[in-house]
Write a structure and sequence with these properties.
The protein has one domain: Orthogonal Bundle (Farnesyl Diphosphate Synthase), CATH 1.10.600.10. It is an all-alpha fold and 339 residues long.
């Protein structure tokens, strides 16, 4: 259902963007895009067809831009950041293909999900192909440290998806458990994308740690805003239907907060809707009303701002530069999506 739209209060205005970062990485991103198109190719016709469907469907390619920016900010002058950035994007694309199958999603980035066009089996297998290509590219760089970071992230992401399955429709999920899920399934790739930049540049451990902290906290903020938007945004902002998390029974922070703060009768509503599978469009409107009543959406956005500030603090010791300014702007963009 895309008709239920509740504006989130307290957002930034005017809306921030990532134009500065896009401009800085444009020459490198053109090369990344060329690698992505080349490596998505295969003699098996269905593979490039499905891969191109998602690759061409938009998205800001924020994660690979983080890799490029972090490497350049650390003074890297080689070529391997291009390959690593493409690897990061392939990892992300693969997780989207897999997630849509697990979540039974109909839309992705405002278009029909690949599973709706080619089926679940093909979507999963093409996701596996892209993961394989990602690891081949990582090996090409010759950086065992970068390979270790990205391969570990792939494992953690899978663990996060399994954790999310175990918490689905479980109203006893608490905030710490929710944060553990999003730290794994979303923030881990942001962290790895930022971390491999200084690794490939040969930076020292404090710098590598700072970029990892930046990426991790950005990822947490990004997912928190996504979860708020599912109840207080629009389909165009999400690239999927508003209320999908509600219909899928996902325990996101707005629900966790609202369930804890509600009356016995209101908690019964959540049990019937999520655990009982009675998540109709009419109940979605009621759910949003309860979330507004208990400030659950606004408090979720407030927590996102907290993590964005932690990401900003991680970069504070770095010397001033256009790169640093652009990465700070990314944080502002992340929060501004809640406007």
């Amino acid at each position: 259902m895309s008709g239920v739209v509740v504006p989130i209060e307290g957002g930034r205005s005017p809306k921030a963007g990532v134009e500065a970062l896009v401009k800085l990485v444009r020459p490198d991103m053109e090369r990344v895009n060329a690698i992505i198109l080349a490596k998505a190719g295969s003699n098996v016709e269905l593979i490039p067809e499905i891969a191109r469907h998602l690759i061409d469907s938009g998205g800001k390619r924020l994660r690979p831009m983080l890799t490029l920016a972090a490497a350049r900010m650390c003074g890297y002058q080689g070529e391997h950041h291009i390959t690593l950035a493409a690897s990061v994007e392939f990892m992300h694309t693969a997780t989207l293909l897999h997630d849509d199958v697990v979540d039974q999603s109909d839309m992705r980035r405002g278009k029909l999900a690949a599973r709706m066009l080619w089926g679940n089996e093909a979507s999963v297998l093409v996701g596996d192909f892209l993961l394989g290509q990602a690891f081949r590219m990582m090996v090409e760089t010759g950086s065992l440290a970068a390979l270790n970071v990205l391969s570990h992230a792939a494992t953690v992401i899978a663990e996060g998806e399994v954790m999310q399955l175990s918490t689905a429709k479980n109203l006893e999920t608490n905030e710490d458990e929710y944060l553990e899920v999003i730290r794994a399934k979303t923030a881990a790739l942001f962290a790895a994308a930022a971390e491999v930049g200084p690794i490939i540049a040969g930076s020292d451990k404090p710098v590598i740690s700072a970029f990892r902290s930046y990426g991790m906290n950005l990822g947490l903020a990004f997912q928190l805003i996504d979860d708020a938007l599912d109840y207080g945004g629009s389909a165009s902002a999400l690239g999927k239907n508003v209320g999908d998390d509600f219909r899928e029974g996902k325990m996101t922070l707005p629900v966790v907060l609202c369930y804890r703060r509600g009356t016995d009768e209101e908690r019964r509503f959540w049990r019937e809707s999520l655990e009982g599978g009675n998540a109709s469009d009419e109940r979605l409107a009621d759910a949003i009303a309860l979330l507004r009543k208990y400030d659950a959406i606004d408090d979720t956005v407030a927590r996102a701002r907290h993590y964005a500030e932690m990401a900003r603090d991680a970069l504070a010791p770095m010397k001033s530069s256009a790169w640093k300014d652009a990465l700070i702007e990314v944080l502002e963009f992340c929060i501004s999506r809640a406007v």
